[in-house]
Amino acid sequence: MTSDTARQTLLRVATAQLQAADIPSPLWEARFLLCDCDGITPTDIITYPDHPVDNPSKFQEWVARRASGEPLSRITGQRNFWGLDFKVSPTTLDPRMDSEVLVRETLALIPNDQKCEIADIGTGTGCLLLAILHERPNARGIGLDISAEALATARSNADRLGLADHARFEESNWLSVLQAQSIDVLISNPPYIVRAEIDHLDPAVRNYDPILALDGGPDGLDAYRAIIDAAPKVLRPGGWIALEIGWDQGESVPNLLNSAGFLRISCFKDTSGHDRVVLGQMPDRA
Ligand SMILES: C[S@@+](CC[C@H](N)C(=O)[O-])C[C@H]1O[C@@H](n2cnc3c(N)ncnc32)[C@H](O)[C@@H]1O
């Protein structure tokens, strides 16, 4: 006889609960939560459907949180980005797939075997910097953030990914701790939401991503101004800047780069066809 805590029984109840809450793909999500909760694989569920769930109350609590709209990654504390597993915490942005465009375009600037010093401004989980360092063994990087708690998460991600010798993390207001002409490639996905629009964001963003990661000031450009003003001092001649932007910032941010003296400014789109990343290069020494 199947028990009340059998995997298939609790999965059936959880799926119905998620479906009633209009969660997309309720069966898939219920399975995902069960696998993460009990440390099992989907194959384990199929092979041993009558096996009791190890942590039934934890699983039921997770399902209730998901039914109330909490993102999966906030519940499990994990997010896959660039094929790597990152810890997320309440003080970090939940890494977005769109940000992989910035990783891809930055990698295109750095030949495979080249030594290179990268700075990631507003590093959060460290996902951008660590994904790049994972692909470029001769590169080294520094991740900066104003949030000491976010930096603790980034350090733990570097440890878990075996990149602690390649990346260091420091508390900093934008670029303030960086030395003059010390950086080859400066990357950032800064907060860029117009302040007045924050209250109208999807609740899954508004209620769970930290405000420090979202608030771009009255016109969404405060962080870009701070970073782009300071970047020419810390970049080496010929160095690059790569910035993630909001879908409607494909003119304003390139204009800021242009005014600061950057050359070869170009914009790249995400998979939805929206402007997502802007690159610019410092002039080479004459
Ligand atoms: C949009 S999140 C990006 C996080 C991560 N790089 C990513 O792409 O998932 C922006 C980050 O900027 C940080 N931040 C906000 N104000 C800052 C400041 N004045 N100096 C440095 N970092 C700041 C936030 O704490 C947050 O981690």
What does this structure look like?
The chain has helices spanning 7-20, 26-38, 42-47, 56-67, 72-76, 100-107, 127-135, 148-160, 203-206, 222-234, 252-259; strands at 78-81, 84-87, 116-121, 139-145, 167-171, 183-188, 235-244, 263-269, 275-281. The chain is of the alpha/beta class. It has a seven-stranded mixed sheet, sandwiched between helices. Strands 1-2 form a two-stranded antiparallel sheet. Helix 1 (7-20) crosses helix 2 (26-38). 39% of the residues are buried. It binds S-adenosylmethionine (SAM). Residues 93, 95, 99, 122-125, 127-128, 144-147, 150, 172-174, 189-191, 212-213 line the site of S-adenosylmethionine.
Terminus-to-terminus distance: 81 Å
CATH first level of the largest domain: which class? Answer: Alpha Beta
CATH fourth-tier homologous superfamily of the largest domain: Vaccinia Virus protein VP39
Broad shape: elongated
Enumerate the strands of the largest sheet in spatial order, edge to edge or round the barrel.
5-4-3-6-7-9-8
- Main sheet overview: 7 strands, mixed
List low-confidence stretches. Answer: none
Strand coverage percent? 15-25%
> What is the mean pLDDT?
97
Helical proportion? 25-40%
| CATH topology-level name of the largest domain | Rossmann fold
What's the helix count? 11
The SSE order reads HHHHHEEHEHEHEEHHEHEE
Give structural attributes.
single chain; 286 residues; alpha/beta; two-stranded antiparallel sheet; 11 helices; binds S-adenosylmethionine
Write the layout of secondary structure elements.
Layout: H1 7-20, H2 26-38, H3 42-47, H4 56-67, H5 72-76, E1 78-81, E2 84-87, H6 100-107, E3 116-121, H7 127-135, E4 139-145, H8 148-160, E5 167-171, E6 183-188, H9 203-206, H10 222-234, E7 235-244, H11 252-259, E8 263-269, E9 275-281
Parallel strand pairs: 3-4, 3-6, 4-5, 6-7
Antiparallel strand pairs: 1-2, 7-9, 8-9
Helix pairs in contact: 1-2, 1-4, 2-4, 6-7
This protein binds S-adenosylmethionine.
S-adenosylmethionine (SAM) binds at residues 93, 95, 99, 122-125, 127-128, 144-147, 150, 172-174, 189-191, 212-213.
